[in-house]
Design a protein that fits this description.
Keywords: Oxidoreductase
Protein name: 3-oxoacyl-ACP reductase
Strand order of the largest sheet: 3-2-1-4-5-6-7
InterPro entries: NAD(P)-bd_dom_sf, Sc_DH/Rdtase_CS, SDR_fam
Family: Belongs to the short-chain dehydrogenases/reductases (SDR) family.
Largest sheet: 7 strands, parallel
CATH class: Alpha Beta
Number of domains: 1
CATH architecture: 3-Layer(aba) Sandwich
Order of helices and strands: EHEHEHEHEHEHEHH
Number of helices: 8
Pfam family, one: adh_short
CATH topology: Rossmann fold
Length: 275
């Protein structure tokens, strides 16, 4: 897939940040329609208005992706208004950075798992049968995290959600290929910390710079179009995953904690400020 021109692109968490950047690239490549999903109605409408200013067809819907019913209902509307998406970008995500003992079971644990794990599953399931049946070159991009490969203290539930997302995303990729639906390709994005308000206060581990959102989106966009199974950024994410698999756990804990400073990277986390 050299371009998304003429294709229908759906992006979750699209009102701001990286979601908006994906939408900008879809508009720039003249997608037939760009569908924006987010929970923030005001920011969503502002983004939709700006992106459609030059005549692009941009549709905006307020959706809670953790709700299977909301997703199913809105999927019907999207199909009626724009058609079956050729590209689904599961970008929506939330984080909680504090000790697990301080997590509220509902507002923290269920919330994070609902958005980060169930959300991509609900959204993909809502459109996948039609994407398979259409027979067109199609893509699913799932935005995970390096914490889904390497454990991080003070981010237990977020880490768990990204481990689950990576496992599901890669299993889906293999399943589609084995069942003869190779025209629908799945890419899993696994970046380290990105310079967004979502991870304000987090400190980058040794040799792992904080990533620029536009750079990550550019690389992910290219990987998605190429149908690349996995994109890990930066190179130290791959190194960490390899070392964690090869080294005895006590040695890896020492290396990650005392040398790379992975285990203390969330100690000063504040997260996005309200407003």
């Amino acid at each position: 897939m050299r371009s998304v021109e003429g294709k229908i692109v759906l992006i979750t968490g699209a009102a701001m940040g990286m979601g908006r950047l994906y939408a900008e690239r879809a508009v720039a490549e003249r997608a037939a329609a760009v569908v924006l999903w987010d929970r923030d109605a005001a920011a969503l409408q502002a983004t939709c208005t700006e992106l459609s200013a030059d005549g692009a067809r941009v549709l905006a819907h307020v959706v809670d992706v953790s709700s299977a019913q909301e997703v199913a209902d809105m999927a019907v509307r999207v199909t009626a208004e724009a058609g079956t998406p050729d590209i689904v970008i599961n970008n929506a995500g939330v984080v909680r950075g504090k000790p697990f003992s301080e997590h509220d079971p509902i507002t923290d644990t269920e919330f994070v798992i609902g958005v980060n794990v169930l959300g991509p599953m609900h959204v993909t399931r809502a459109f996948l049968p039609a994407m398979i049946a259409a027979g067109n070159d199609a893509r699913v991009l799932n935005v995970a995290s390096a914490s889904g490969l390497v454990s991080v203290p003070r981010m237990t539930v977020y880490t768990a959600s990204k481990w689950a997302l990576i496992g599901w995303s890669d299993s889906l990729r293999l399943e589609l290929k084995r069942e003869g639906h190779g025209h629908v390709r799945v890419t899993t994005l696994i970046p380290s910390y990105i310079k967004t308000g979502m991870f304000a206060g987090a400190r980058a581990p040794l040799l792992t710079p904080l990533l620029e959102p536009a750079h990550v989106v550019d690389k992910a966009w290219a990987a998605m179009k190429a149908g690349k199974p996995r994109l890990m950024m930066p190179w130290t994410v791959t190194l960490s995953a390899v070392l964690r698999g090869l080294l005895p756990l006590p040695l890896w804990d020492w290396l990650a904690g005392s040398v790379f400073k992975v285990y203390s990277s969330m100690d000063a986390f504040t997260g996005r400020k309200p407003g």
